[in-house]
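User: I would dearly like some help making sense of a protein record. I have put the entry right below:
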Amino acid sequence: MISVQAVNFAYDGTKQLLKDISFSVQEGEIIGIVGPNGSGKTTLLKLLSRTLSPSSGEVMLQGKNIRTYSQKELAKKIAVLSQKTEESFSYSVYDTVSLGRYAHQQRFLPSWSKEDEETVRAAMQMTEVTHLQNRTLPFLSGGERQRVYLAQALAQEPSLLLLDEPTNHLDMKHSIQLFRFLQTWVEENESTVIAIFHDLNLASMYCNRIFVLEDGEMIVQDTPQHALTETVLQDVYHPIILCEPHPLHEAPIITYAPVIQEKKGPLSYKKEESRFVIEGTEAVKVMSSLHGIKWAREVVYSWDEGDYADREDILHFGLYAKPSRIVTRETKKGDIISVIMTGNKAHVSLFVHGVLADAEYFQYMMMISSLLDIQSVLIASAQYGTHADIQDFIHETMDEVRKQC
């Protein structure tokens, strides 16, 4: 359908806005372009619509350089819904949508056919603006106006639809309806949609592939499952982003963790007469082999008869015997790992001063279980700060424990 080959773009004498961009998009795909403000998303869309021309490289549309198409030929193939749609004249909704048929009119004998009328009516019905057809644009809400311009784009019957933040001004209901409709439209017409998104969850749910831009460069182009990962999104957007599996869909759900500027207090640990305690001033996300996933402020390993059932913020492990050895190590950053030996079995707890994805909780649990004879494993993280990589720390601690035992 459309391909971009080694495209660069810069306005004269200014910073390069796009750097060596290459990709191809096939018929039947919905492509999402995501990235921070200023990453080059809208500039890329303008190159695809020929509003701008690349400084170098080529944009190919159905096997031909996009520069070789006449304006009318291009309008039959590409429709654009820009981010800002401001009306210059007080057209009615019907007249505005009808303008989408311009490319299909005869050059010297403009006429309005039955096909034109049916196409306009169908586009208004699809976007739920038929009841507004006699209203003029200045008297519509932002969301209504957005749907009118989308109907105009659909009335062009393009092969490629370019959308710059199409859910701008739309509520949740109409945003979901829009992309459900676009999925059907793409499948039935073997068409293509390329859209800019700020809503990562909409992009995840409805796109076949995601293009991630940062500072004019293409960082990733892949399926939502592989493009919208915590590692990619945190590197690009910088706040703490968590990706969880959707309960009904293979695409991930993206959530944002609150940003905490500084840690209120360090984790501490202490050995008492009949228990070993690790505690902090804030709750941490804990995954353990015995208790599953929960948030807790304190973890207690005890070898007494104490009752901890009434404290929801405590995670308690009852040991069947007094520990023969307790090994505790701490990094400069504040990561803590403790190994409590009872006989030849180990209870291991790892507290991470940073961010862990769910997959990494499982990864570290499996790693620890493969290195020692384990009775229980606990992995905990406060889920703020930077992404943590502590594999070397784990291996070094397990080596030390094996030497001492």
